[in-house]
Every structure is written in structure tokens, then in C-alpha cells.
Specification:
globular; about 80 residues; 3-stranded antiparallel sheet; 3 helices; about 20% strand; alpha+beta
Length: about 80
């Protein structure tokens, strides 16, 4: 791997570990959300449900308003076939 690939992989692993609670919450609840919010984006931060948004940019704006630019937060698209 190149230096850039190594750093990207390290960043991906760090972010995944920081967002493990949020990912678990998403996976626990996505089946409940599909009927009313399929194709929308959900924002989840540390122990905080940030709401549903029609577009990714809307979700990103809401997430940065709620959590700032330093605290990690998750944006996931709600899909019926998501794992």
C-alpha cells in the first residue's frame, strides 16, 4: 500500500470505531424506518437521534448544526436492502 492508502485506511478504521454506537443504533432501527423514510437520510450522533432528511446535503447541514465540525456523527441512507 502507498502512504496515502495507509493513511486513508487508518482514518477509515478510526472513524468506524468512533461511530460504532451510531452504526449499531442505525442497524437496530433501520427496519422500523423503511416504511416511512425509505431513501431518506438519518443523522445520528452520540446518544442523539438527529432526524430524517430528504437529501444528503440537508442531513449534513443538520448534523453540523447539531454536532459541530469536531464531534463525529453518522449520516446513513435508509434502504430496505441495507445490511
Amino acid at each position: 500500500m502507498s502512504y496515502l492508502q495507509d493513511n486513508a485506511e487508518m482514518l477509515r478504521r478510526r472513524m468506524a470505531s468512533q461511530l460504532s454506537e451510531e452504526l449499531a443504533f442505525f442497524h437496530d432501527h433501520q427496519h422500523e424506518w423503511v416504511a416511512g423514510h425509505h431513501g431518506e437520510f438519518v443523522v445520528i450522533g452520540k446518544q442523539t437521534f438527529g432526524g430524517f432528511y430528504k437529501t444528503y446535503p440537508e442531513a449534513l447541514r443538520a448534523g453540523t448544526r447539531m454536532f459541530g465540525l469536531i464531534k463525529p456523527f453518522l449520516i446513513e441512507e435508509i434502504r430496505a436492502n441495507a445490511n
